[in-house]
Amino acid sequence: MKKLIFIIPLALMSCYGICQELEQKSESRSKTEEFYSKEGSLFEKEFIPVGIVGPSFSIRVMKITDLITEETQSGIRLQYLHKGKYSNSTKSATIDSDELDGFIKSIKILKEKVFISMPSNYKEVTFISRSGFQAGCFWSSVKKEWKTYVKLEKYDSDSYVWLKISDFDELLLYLEKAKTML
């Protein structure tokens, strides 16, 4: 009986935690991801290569068409092949077309203002998209340099792609190219 009193609340707390995590994951979806997850539809996805940045971090334009209603939605698809100790996995993120201008502007600010500064304290600068994609940097007080990254999946620490500051020039070039292809 005493074991039941202990086990039942523990099981309820576990269920609550799992449900809360699932709710958080469903909240952080891009409009493009929401569009192609509608039930009862037939979707065609087209991926148009734009370029590759740094260590095999690819950028593609993603065009989705609902073949029943003929509605379309476009966005940017970012992918990275994570090479793990025992297996490889593809990490990906979607940036909606209406977020692209903000992302491009953020990269320009990083290049023009942030990367040239030398703060005396630890700092982080981050762009976060609707789906949880992140791009940014942090100041390493020890090495006295900016460490730059993109993080493709919100809840996955293996989805970090560590970039060089010079990779942001290439990233900006490809994003501006992708913008003309949407």
Amount of helix: 25-40%
Number of domains: 1
- Give the integer mean of the pLDDT values: 87
Largest sheet: 4 strands, antiparallel
Cross-sheet strand order for the largest sheet: 1-2-3-4
Q: What is the ordering of alpha helices and beta strands?
A: HHEEEEHEEEEH
How many β-strands, per DSSP?
Answer: 8
Query: In CATH, what is the class?
Result: Alpha Beta
What integer value in Å does the Rg equal?
20 Å
List keywords for this structure.
4-stranded antiparallel β-sheet; alpha+beta; 182 residues; Secreted effector protein pipB2 fold
Give me the secondary-structure topology.
Blueprint: H1 2-27, H2 31-35, E1 43-53, E2 57-66, E3 72-83, E4 88-96, H3 100-114, E5 124-128, E6 134-140, E7 145-151, E8 160-163, H4 167-181
Antiparallel strand pairs: 1-2, 2-3, 3-4, 5-6, 6-7, 7-8
Short account of what is shown:
The chain is an alpha+beta fold and 182 residues long. The chain has helices spanning 2-27, 31-35, 100-114, 167-181; strands at residues 43-53, 57-66, 72-83, 88-96, 124-128, 134-140, 145-151, 160-163.
